[in-house]
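Researcher: Quick test of sequence recovery. Tokens follow.
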């Protein structure tokens, strides 16, 4: 009996050591663990690339819309315009890539006395209120819609708060504290003698 017992013990000991050795050699689960370790950084990289590309496309659509509208004003196709019509005109070109109604859109159209005056216009992002503040020679100025007549110099500035879609990317991509990115386009021109 003693010998049978020792044979059984040696077999179970061999099985345990064989099982342990097989477990050490078995790499089937390592693929799942490696994939899990790499999936998170890979997904973050993919989302960052997509978010940046979509934001860049939005900026380009905004720049093209601003350029097109400024050309229509420069050539006299648009001679007078009010704030609502200008907003609708810009928004109709942006709605291909932004939310209907263009929330976060701000437009400034003004007549200049000279091109040098245009260099004195700037803007600032107020981080507390997430608003764009227009500056002229260091002081604040209000948004306006004022298109000059033939031969006048004009400047069109368009601002849009672009929402960052991927939540964890907002602190890296956004330049406003509410998680949006301010897109901006400007055109300065002299109207033709229409």
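Model:
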């Amino acid at each position: 009996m003693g010998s049978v017992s020792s044979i059984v013990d040696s077999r179970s000991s061999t099985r345990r050591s064989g099982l342990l050795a097989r477990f050490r050699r078995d790499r089937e689960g390592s693929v799942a663990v490696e994939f899990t370790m790499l999936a998170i950084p890979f997904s973050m990289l993919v989302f960052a690339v997509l978010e940046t590309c979509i934001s860049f496309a939005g900026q380009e659509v905004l720049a093209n819309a601003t350029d097109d509208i400024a050309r229509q004003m420069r050539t006299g196709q648009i001679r007078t315009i009010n704030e609502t019509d200008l907003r609708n005109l810009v928004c109709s070109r942006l709605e291909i890539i932004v939310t209907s109604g263009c929330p976060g859109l701000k437009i400034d159209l003004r007549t200049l006395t000279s091109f040098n005056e245009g260099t004195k216009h700037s803007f600032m992002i107020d981080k507390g209120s997430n608003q764009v503040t227009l500056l002229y020679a260091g002081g604040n100025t209000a948004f306006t819609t004022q298109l000059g007549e033939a031969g006048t110099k004009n400047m069109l500035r368009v601002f849009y708060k672009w929402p960052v879609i991927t939540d964890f990317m907002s602190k890296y991509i956004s330049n406003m504290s509410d998680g949006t990115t301010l897109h901006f386009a400007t055109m300065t021109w002299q109207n033709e003698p229409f």
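DSSP finds five helices and six strands in the chain.
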